[in-house]
Write a structure and sequence with these properties.
about 110 residues, Immunoglobulin-like, 1 helix, 7 strands, single chain, alpha+beta, 4-stranded antiparallel beta sheet
Length: about 110
């Protein structure tokens, strides 16, 4: 009977450890990022991630949001934040503003 109790205690501790330390997998969300104009370079948390339109799976560690920047020559950069909530939101759009050129008339 003593060996059985020891085995049950070990199984219980293993289950408690799995519950405490397992199940901490980050939540993921598939997102589509577009821009006007298209073909802008997308940076997610500072890392180049692709060109718009871009479809990407984001993995949220501790529900921390992602900083998304779109850049294109001749335009001011556009910036959005993508959060886990609402989980159902998947489409994101960034409007880039054209940089006005200065013309000097003499």
């Amino acid at each position: 009977m003593g060996a059985r109790k020891t085995m049950m205690a070990k199984m219980f501790l293993l289950l408690v450890a799995a519950w405490l330390f397992g199940g901490c997998a980050p939540a993921t969300k598939m997102v589509k990022i577009s821009s006007t104009p298209s073909a802008a370079t997308v940076y997610i948390n500072g890392q180049e991630s692709g060109i718009t339109p871009l479809t990407k799976e984001l993995s949220f560690e501790r529900n921390k949001p992602f900083d998304v920047v779109a850049k294109k020559e001749g335009y001011k950069e556009g910036r959005i934040t993508i959060s886990l909530d609402p989980l159902t939101k998947a489409d994101y759009h960034i409007d880039l503003e054209k940089i006005a050129k200065m013309v000097k008339i003499t």
